[in-house]
Every structure is written in C-alpha cells, then in structure tokens.
C-alpha cells in the first residue's frame, strides 16, 4: 500500500515520524508492505514553494491509498493580512480529496480520567463518534471583504447533507444505533435544510434512532450527559467547535485521532491537535494522536482491522502503564512513547 | 420607571411573574415606583395575532425604560416548514431595540459546585463576563433556499465590531482588565475583520490586556482553564454556543441571567434558559435566572446599583440556605423560591 505522509509544521514532523515507525513495526509483524512518500504542506510548503498545497503534493495524495498528516500552521505564517496561509493548504486538500466525512472518536481512557476537567462519574461510558461534515459550509463558501465589511457565506446542498448523513447512520449501525444531528434550525436556513434532509434519510435506517439538538444545547449536553451520545453528526463549523470541546473531556488533545473519508478509498488521517509551536522541535510532543490516526488509516483505507486494533490495544497499554508524555502529566519524550507502543504491539 | 414585561411561552410567564414580584418588593422597600405593562411575543403572539412580534409590543418596548422577557418557543410552533416562528419575534426585537451587546455573567455559586459537571478545583475563581454581539452575523444575514440548496450569509461591518468591542473593554476596566476576543480568523473573512478591528480598538484601552483565541480552542479552554478568563467578547453565533457551554459549568441553566444593551438606555433582560415546555405550567421552573435578570435591569437601565446588589445577595442567600428548585436538586416550586428571595431582601 502507498501511504503519503504530510508532516507539515511545528510538532507535525515529530508525531508523523512516530506514527510511521509504528506502521513500519506493524508491517514487519504482519507481512504487509507499506511504501511511504513524504510531501510538503502548510507553512513549510509556503516557505519552499510559495504555496500551501503544492501541485506535487496534491498529485501524490490523489494517487496514494491513504494520507497521514501531522499538523499545519504556526506564528510565522499567522499574519492576519497574509495572502497565503498554511490552513488553506489543509482546506484545499480536504476539498480536493473529497473527504466529506470527518470521523472523530472520543473515549476517555480510565488512566486519564484524573486529567479530565469533568467529574469522574460523568466520564463513565463516554463513547462518542463525531461525524463532522468537512468539505462544505462557511469554510468553503464565498467570502468578500472591503474596508468596511466582510462576509462569509455558509452554503449546503441537499446532496452534501445526504452523503454525510448516510455515513453517520451506517457507522451508527455498527455501534449503538443512535444518531444525534446537530444544527441551529431555529435561526439558520442551512440548518433547516440540514434537519429536513437528515430526517428524510433517517427513514432509510429504521433500526437507528435519530435525535435533533440545537448546537447551543449540544454544547451544554456534551458536558452534562456525555455518555448519552453515540454518533453525533453535524456541519463543518459546528463540528469544529464541538469536537474541540469534547476533546477537552479526554484529558488531552494530544491523544485524539481523526479520519476524513470520502466516496473513494483514499482517506486523510490526522491527529486533532495543532502544530503546537511552543513545544515544536523539543521531542516532547505526544505522538498518540498521530499513532491512533495511523490505526484508523489501517482500518478505513487498508481494511486492516486486526492490525488497527493491535495498535489501539498497544496505545491503551501504554496509557495504563506508562510512559506518559508531558501533556498527560508524565516526562517521557515523543520517541520514548513511540518505542513503548511498538514494544506493546507484541 | 416603565418596565415592559414579555412573558412569552412555556415557563416564561411563571418566571416573569416571579421576577416582577421581586421588583415590586424592591420598589416598596426603596420607595421607587415601577410601572409594569405586559405584552405578547413569540408563540403566544403568533396564536393571538399571527405575528411573533406584534406592532403594539414593539411600540411599547421602544417607549419603555427596560424590557423583561421570559422565554419564547415550544413544540407547538417548531415545524421546520413553518413560515412564522416564535424565535423571529425575539430576533426582530433585539434588532429593533438595537441591543448589540449581550452580557452573560458566569459565576459558580459554591452551594452548586456539586451540581457542576466540572471538577471542583476547576470551578474556583470562575468569574467570566461574556459579551456576545447580538444584532449581526449569520442571525441577520441574507438567507436563500431552493429545493436543492440553502445559504446563510454571515456579515459584519467594522462599525458593528467597534461598538461591541468598546463595550467589552469598558466592562473589563471595571473588572480584571482582561479581554479575550474569540473568532475563527484562520478560516473566516468576517473573523479576520473582527480580529483586526478588535486589535485596533484595544489600543484605545492600554490598561486592558487583549488576547485572541480561536473559537474551537476557546470551547476547550472554557473547560480546562475557566478561571483564566475575565471578559470574553465574540460574534453572535459563537457567543450563542460558548455561553451555553459555559452555562453548564454553573450547575443549571436556570440560574443564569442576561442583559442586552445598545447605545440607548432601553435594555432587554432575559434569563438564558428557554421555554422548557416539558415543565411549563407546573409551577416548578427555577425563577432565579429571571430574578437575576431583573437585578441586571435595575443596574444597567435604571442606575439602581444598590438595589441590584440587594437582589443578588438575596439570591445568593437562597442558593446557600435553600429552598432549591428541582433543576438544582431541591423540591421547591417557583413561588416558594420567589418568596424566599423576597424574604431575604431584608
Ligand atoms: C486548522 C483549521 C483550519 C482546522 C479546522 O478548522 O478545520 C482545525 O481546527 C481542525 O479542526 O482540523
Ligand atoms: C432562541 C434563540 C433564537 C436564541 C439565540 O440563538 O440567540 C437563544 O438560544 C439565545 O441564546 O438567546
């Protein structure tokens, strides 16, 4: 299988290296062959080529079986007046690969419950899968700017809502048969289209229960009753906000993986943390978000479910027994955590 | 002083009655005279007149010194295909009164810390004032809908951002001199206008420290470091989501008041909870959000700071000593809580 890596900026290269090392260890043990090819994206691509998503990078991603991304962005490229921004590379890649469904699973590992801001009793049985629409909404709508005024258009078509809804319901079938759709239908026209489309598609899945929540209520319910939710499907910007809120529950952003999937097989996998410029280059970033993203890559793009589960079990073992990185209260560096995961594969 | 009450739907009338009773008790004790006048808004106004904000209601509000609102909406008027919705009345009223700054204070009363989903140590010293822009953004932008597509436009002018920013900085001066501005400047054009405008206005307030956060990070930081924040200023939709998230920290939505202010004196005051149709009519709704909104009314529209503080102290006394309503683990009804607050005024 051909895997393109896009290490990107900040801690991106460090955590991507770790994930690749784990994938290589899995390859050795399982007899599979993974060919890795690294390309530039984000700030480092701007520095090298002037563009956040160079044509060579995009071409390589399109021909790959899967793409593993580190992180993009950093203060060096954050001037609000800048014409070219690292994030544009990521958004353009998501759009070009057509990965409209961003899966963000949330569990709270028992060893980390003490790090969560939430009370322990709230964290019991939390097992949520967010399905965030990733290629529509205000992220990709028309923008205007004059000296006096700025606008962003949020736009959704019925077809865009249908495909991400179907993905959410199919995933819910394999889980606890419950979908919560989040919108702001009491105010937004796109949310009313969202709600009526989700309601209609739900009828195709009579075995799955559908519930609607307004985004403001959902932001509250995630804290007061997090264990009530199974699959939560929502539009791009609401998903961005709610998944970061939910990530706080897990004790650290550094642990959380994501998979972005489209109709085709090529998926985009990335930890949900950012480029963490404050700790970049020090070899102390938590690689578990990237490593768990690599596990999702095996499961969703390469159909290697057993190998994915092996990685997840190894990560769980390391979380239980250590070593732990700084963000979760330990002192171990990126490489040490990575080695411990590899050791735990056996 | 002339106070228009807009009880609205669901529990709105019950909690508004309680707030009026408290204001009347304050009037007796302080020698002030408040004239109350009640008008229809929301679902009950649709039933009576076909419109969620009848002209008579708006005219009365415009001539009042302050407006005290209960809640609007309910399942009866929630058909997504409906042409007229209760929420439109509230949005139209906010726009017509020009109340562009929605203040939502958040404290966690020690007696309620056990009800908060957050760990107790996180709740120490939490004292945040949200300033949510209330008359712009996607709430009021152009909307389109065809069979296939829907759009919402989010629009901000520099002037709209300036005035709410100034309000936030003025409020921060009276507090801990710290403003956090929340946007999504790495993706949205309106957020880039927001950020550059806030940065420019901040220079007029050299005594106040300004910090920018992205909305997704802020959703996380509110949970991991809530005591770090003083004044948080943000646009309409982000404010809607973040204030509900923050409200969960307080142990119950039922406690939280809000004040919506413009350039003029007439302010709009409402608890942040909704119409709670499930408990409406049973006399069990928590009236403290409405009562604390009445305190904000005295402070911000009538310049009666001492009287406002008296109400707040009485509410605090009731929270410490009981009786408590169901939402905070007690059994007392609306009227009983209201009477206890009035008794505690002395
Ligand atoms: C970097 C940024 C553009 C991105 C987003 O908003 O989608 C990030 O926050 C994420 O959630 O993946
Ligand atoms: C009822 C609804 C339109 C309203 C809003 O979204 O502003 C409410 O959620 C609020 O926060 O006051």
UniProtKB/TrEMBL annotation, chains A, B:
<keyword id="KW-0100">Branched-chain amino acid biosynthesis</keyword>
<feature type="binding site">
    <location>
        <position position="132"/>
    </location>
    <ligand>
        <name>substrate</name>
    </ligand>
</feature>
<comment type="subunit">
    <text>Homodimer.</text>
</comment>
<keyword id="KW-0460">Magnesium</keyword>
<keyword id="KW-0432">Leucine biosynthesis</keyword>
<dbReference type="GO" id="GO:0051287">
    <property type="term" value="F:NAD binding"/>
</dbReference>
<dbReference type="InterPro" id="IPR024084">
    <property type="entry name" value="IsoPropMal-DH-like_dom"/>
</dbReference>
<feature type="site" description="Important for catalysis">
    <location>
        <position position="184"/>
    </location>
</feature>
<feature type="binding site">
    <location>
        <begin position="74"/>
        <end position="87"/>
    </location>
    <ligand>
        <name>NAD(+)</name>
    </ligand>
</feature>
<feature type="binding site">
    <location>
        <position position="94"/>
    </location>
    <ligand>
        <name>substrate</name>
    </ligand>
</feature>
<feature type="binding site">
    <location>
        <position position="240"/>
    </location>
    <ligand>
        <name>Mg(2+)</name>
    </ligand>
</feature>
<keyword id="KW-0560">Oxidoreductase</keyword>
<dbReference type="GO" id="GO:0003862">
    <property type="term" value="F:3-isopropylmalate dehydrogenase activity"/>
</dbReference>
<feature type="binding site">
    <location>
        <position position="104"/>
    </location>
    <ligand>
        <name>substrate</name>
    </ligand>
</feature>
<dbReference type="Pfam" id="PF00180">
    <property type="entry name" value="Iso_dh"/>
</dbReference>
<keyword id="KW-0464">Manganese</keyword>
<feature type="binding site">
    <location>
        <position position="216"/>
    </location>
    <ligand>
        <name>Mg(2+)</name>
    </ligand>
</feature>
<feature type="domain" description="Isopropylmalate dehydrogenase-like">
    <location>
        <begin position="2"/>
        <end position="341"/>
    </location>
</feature>
<dbReference type="GO" id="GO:0005829">
    <property type="term" value="C:cytosol"/>
</dbReference>
<comment type="pathway">
    <text>Amino-acid biosynthesis; L-leucine biosynthesis; L-leucine from 3-methyl-2-oxobutanoate: step 3/4.</text>
</comment>
<keyword id="KW-0520">NAD</keyword>
<dbReference type="InterPro" id="IPR019818">
    <property type="entry name" value="IsoCit/isopropylmalate_DH_CS"/>
</dbReference>
<dbReference type="GO" id="GO:0009098">
    <property type="term" value="P:L-leucine biosynthetic process"/>
</dbReference>
<feature type="binding site">
    <location>
        <position position="216"/>
    </location>
    <ligand>
        <name>substrate</name>
    </ligand>
</feature>
<dbReference type="InterPro" id="IPR004429">
    <property type="entry name" value="Isopropylmalate_DH"/>
</dbReference>
<keyword id="KW-0028">Amino-acid biosynthesis</keyword>
<comment type="function">
    <text>Catalyzes the oxidation of 3-carboxy-2-hydroxy-4-methylpentanoate (3-isopropylmalate) to 3-carboxy-4-methyl-2-oxopentanoate. The product decarboxylates to 4-methyl-2 oxopentanoate.</text>
</comment>
<keyword id="KW-0479">Metal-binding</keyword>
<feature type="binding site">
    <location>
        <begin position="274"/>
        <end position="286"/>
    </location>
    <ligand>
        <name>NAD(+)</name>
    </ligand>
</feature>
<feature type="site" description="Important for catalysis">
    <location>
        <position position="139"/>
    </location>
</feature>
<protein>
    <recommendedName>
        <fullName>3-isopropylmalate dehydrogenase</fullName>
        <ecNumber>1.1.1.85</ecNumber>
    </recommendedName>
</protein>
<comment type="similarity">
    <text>Belongs to the isocitrate and isopropylmalate dehydrogenases family. LeuB type 1 subfamily.</text>
</comment>
<feature type="binding site">
    <location>
        <position position="244"/>
    </location>
    <ligand>
        <name>Mg(2+)</name>
    </ligand>
</feature>
<keyword id="KW-0963">Cytoplasm</keyword>
<dbReference type="GO" id="GO:0000287">
    <property type="term" value="F:magnesium ion binding"/>
</dbReference>
């Amino acid at each position: 299988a051909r895997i393109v890596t896009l290490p990107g900026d900040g801690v991106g290269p460090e955590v991507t290296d770790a994930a690749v090392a784990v994938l290589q260890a899995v390859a050795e043990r399982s007899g599979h062959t993974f060919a890795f090819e690294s390309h530039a994206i984000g700030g480092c691509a701007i520095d090298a080529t002037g563009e956040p998503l160079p044509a060579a990078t995009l071409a390589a991603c399109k021909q790959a079986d899967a793409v593993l991304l580190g992180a993009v962005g950093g203060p060096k490229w954050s001037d609000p007046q800048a014409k070219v921004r690292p994030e544009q590379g990521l958004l353009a890649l998501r759009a070009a690969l057509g990965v409209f469904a961003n899966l963000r699973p949330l569990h709270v590992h028992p060893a980390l419950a003490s790090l969560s801001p939430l009370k322990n009793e709230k964290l019991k049985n939390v097992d949520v899968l967010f399905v965030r629409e990733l290629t529509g909404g205000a992220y990709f709508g028309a923008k205007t700017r004059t000296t006096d005024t700025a606008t962003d258009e949020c736009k959704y078509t019925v077809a865009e809502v249908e495909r991400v809804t179907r993905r959410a319901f199919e995933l819910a079938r394999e889980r606890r048969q419950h979908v919560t759709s989040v919108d702001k239908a009491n105010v937004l026209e796109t949310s009313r289209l969202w709600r009526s489309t989700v309601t209609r598609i739900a009828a195709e899945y009579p075995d799955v229960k559908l519930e609607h929540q307004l985004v403001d209520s959902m932001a509250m319910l995630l804290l007061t009753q997090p264990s009530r939710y199974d699959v939560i499907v929502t539009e791009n910007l609401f998903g961005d906000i709610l998944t970061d809120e939910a990530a706080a529950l897990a004790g650290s952003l550094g642990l959380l993986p994501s998979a972005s999937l489209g109709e085709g097989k090529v998926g985009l996998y990335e930890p949900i943390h950012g480029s963490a410029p404050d700790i970049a280059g020090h070899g102390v970033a938590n690689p578990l978000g990237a490593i768990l993203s690599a596990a999702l890559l095996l499961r969703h793009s390469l159909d290697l479910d057993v190998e994915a589960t092996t990685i997840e079990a190894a990560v769980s073992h390391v979380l239980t027994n250590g070593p732990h990185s700084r963000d979760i209260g330990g002192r171990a560096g990126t490489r040490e955590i990575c080695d411990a995961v590899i050791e735990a594969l056996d």
